[in-house]
Amino acid sequence: MSKTLHFPSPRHLHSLYAGREENLAHAERALGVKLVTREDWLKIEPPAGATAASAAEPIRRTEALFHFLNEARGQGMTIRTPDFHRITDGFARGEGDQMRALIDEPLVIATNRKSIVPKTLGQKLYLQSMLAHPVVFGIGPAGTGKTYLAMAAAVSALLRNEVERIILTRPAVEAGETLGFLPGDLREKILPYLRPLYDALGDMLDPEDTARLTEKGIIEIAPLAYMRGRTLSRSFIILDEAQNTTPEQMMMFLTRLGEDSRMVVTGDITQIDLPRAKQSGLLEVRHILAGIPGIDFHTFSGADVVRHPLVGRIIAAYEAYRNPMNQENGTTGKA
C-alpha cells in the first residue's frame, strides 16, 4: 500500500517540488496521500485507515505526478511553486493525460534572431493558451515574461504568415512622475512610453527588418488612444501595461478585434499608475469576461519571475508588506 520513488540526488528531488516542504503538504491535501522524503527518495503512503482498494488510485496519481515533474525537469524546465500547484491540482482532478501534453509536445517559438523556449511550466501554459485562444490575458508582476512571450508569439505568427500585421500598444500613463511637455514629433513624444516594446522586438528581429516592417505598417507601435474607431483584422494585437487602462479604454480595445485576429493583454495589477479616482480596466475585466469561451486568463505570481533571483524576493517582500494579514500590530502597510 505504499510506493517509494528514487532520484539521482537529494537536490534533484528537491527541485521537483521547488524545494518547499509546504508544496509537499499541498500535494498531500490535493491527492489524499502521505509523503515522506529522506535524502534522494520519496515515499508515497495512503492516509491512516485507508484500504488497499481506496488507496490505489491516489498513490498511482501521485507517482504519475512525480514522474511527470521529473520529465519536465529533464527538458530543462525550472519547476516553481505556481507550476507545482497547477500540475498537482490537475493530477488530483484526474487530468494527468492532458497535463502530459505539456512535456510530450515541445514548444519552441522561432523568430529571426533566436528561438525562444519557455523557462517554466507556467510560461509554457501561457504560450499554449496564446496558441489556443483568440484573446488571452497575461496578468502578473514584472519579470515573468508575460509581454516578452506575447511579442515572441506575435513575431512567430507573422513569420509563418498566420497574420498580416503586428500591432503593439500601451496607454500613455506616466509611472508616478511627470514627464512634462516632450519636444519633437509624435514618434519622439510617445517613444518613452513604447521603448520596452521596441526593446523586446529588437531581440527577435534584425534592426533592418524592424525598420522596414515598421515603415510599411506591418509592425505598428502606437499609444492606445490611436486604436479608437479601428477594426483590426488578420492582426496580432498586444496591449501592454493594461493595468493603466480605464474600463472604457479596455472595452474600446477589446472591441477592435477583427476577423482572424488574436489579442494578448498584459499587465501587473500591483503597479497601477492611474489617478486614485479611476478604476483599472484590467481589474474590472476579470470579473466581466471570466468563463467566456475563447478568452483565457493566465495569472503569474512572484514565484514565476525569471529575472535576477532578487527580483522575486523583492516582489514577495512587497506582497507581504501590502497584505494586512501579514502586518503586525494591526497596520495595513499602506503609505
Q: What kind of sheet is the major sheet?
A: 6 strands, parallel
Briefly note the structural class of the backbone: alpha/beta
- Total beta-strand segments: 11
CA-CA gap between termini? 55 Å
- Strands ordered across the widest β-sheet: 8-7-9-10-6-11
Radius of gyration: 23 Å
> Tally the helices: what do you get?
12
Percent of residues in helices: 40-55%
> Based on CA inertia axes, which overall geometry fits?
elongated
Proportion of residues in β-strands:
5-15%
Low-confidence stretches: 175-182, 326-335
- Mean pLDDT value: 83
The helix/strand order is: EHHEEHHHEEHEHEHHEEHEHEH
What is the structure about, briefly put?
This protein has 335 residues and is an alpha/beta fold.
